[in-house]
Amino acid sequence: MTKHRIIRTMFGAAGVAALLVTAGCSASSADDGATSGAPSSSASSSGSTPSGSAGSPSGSPSGEASGETSEPAATESATDGTGSTDETGTTEGRCQTPELAGSLVPVEGGAGAGHYEIEVVLKNEAPDECWLQGWPGVSFVGDDDGTQLGEAATFDRSSPHETVTLAPGESAQAVVRVSNAENYGDECGQTPADGLRIYPPGEKRSLFVRNDQLTLTACADSDEPLLQVQALQPAS
Prior knowledge:
This protein has 236 residues and is an alpha+beta fold. It has a domain at 97-234: Sandwich (Immunoglobulin-like), CATH 2.60.40. The protein has two helices and 14 strands. A hairpin with a 4-residue loop joins strand 4 and strand 5. The model is unreliable at 2-81 (pLDDT under 50).
């Protein structure tokens, strides 16, 4: 073999070796990329939950997740003496003071040791049906000018207090127990009463019921209530 052919053979072998080294590096780089560089779309989908799946309770009723409830609060009927609502919790159709006429009636056999009883009667004079429920506000008035005498009546909570529906011309009545002013001595400031001021249940407007057939005596200077009123009932 000549000198020139030997040199060409050596350079040829060196070139093949260089090509093999270059190919090996390229293959190694491709393998590294396959193991360390996951596509970005795969990474984002693996951490998400499809809408409407078990991980997202979009179909749950509002408020359940926090323990709240959507049920409405219960409504209590007015049985505290104000009579502002009926058993259904509404004020619609309640009798208004201008629609009512009042009168006082003695209760036969209602007298006892140190007290007597009268009835407050409220008549529906409106052209439409209305209702009353609860205890009326009651107090003595006098001095010919509507001045309140003594303390207002307390409520007899033990008395029935159902809603009373009044057709036009019908009446409801409430028994009032009156303690004798003489029971409290001269210090009570005994004063003749012109009648009673009546607040129908739930009303801020009152009506005056004049005393036409009874002897009513109040204690103008006493803090002791002489009056106790029961809830309104249908007139007998």
